[in-house]
Amino acid sequence: MNTIKRFFSEFSFPGGCKYRLWTLLPAALLIALDQWLKYLATVHLKGNPAIPLIEDVFELLYVENPGAAFSILQNQRLFFILFTGIVMLFLLTVLVSGRYRRYMLLNISFVLVLAGGIGNLIDRIVNGVVIDYLYFKWIDFPVFNFADCCLVIGAILMLIFFFFVYEDTSLSKQKQPPANKTEEASDEQEKLDNP
Description:
The structure is a single chain. It contains seven helices and three strands, in the order ααββααβααα. By secondary structure, it is mainly α. A three-stranded antiparallel beta sheet has the order 1-2-3. Strand 1 and strand 2 (58-65) form a beta hairpin. It starts with a helix and ends with a helix. The mean pLDDT is 83.
């Protein structure tokens, strides 16, 4: 109970409204862009042959995906709606809490993952399937969409952050000797240098 209380007390911080605006607005714009691109794909690509952008390499191809990325776990709509909804709600809560507001890279990754996850979640709720339209024919890569791009880039940035940027301050504090011990050590060294 104490942990939950402490977590929600962090929601109030100087510049909180501005921070939330600059994180949630880009996520909303990316979601809107994703939905607009899927609308265009439905209107112009559905029922039509693929449109090559780079001959035999990359094309626009309308596909309805009832599964997850790369068509795994087909026809598990309710599972995906619940799972994605819970993950997105958790991520949104962490983002608006401002807990990691000083880490720009992590905030960008949160925004991208949130936008991609919500974009595909809207498809599952409204259409029952996710609309994909980008196809690398050259390597026969599974058809994907803009939301998938956001998810993958966001996840990669998150991994980069946690593996190469983030330092747990509680661990670094444990490694540092207390201030008074450092002063004592320097006094001892001074005595040895000046007998």
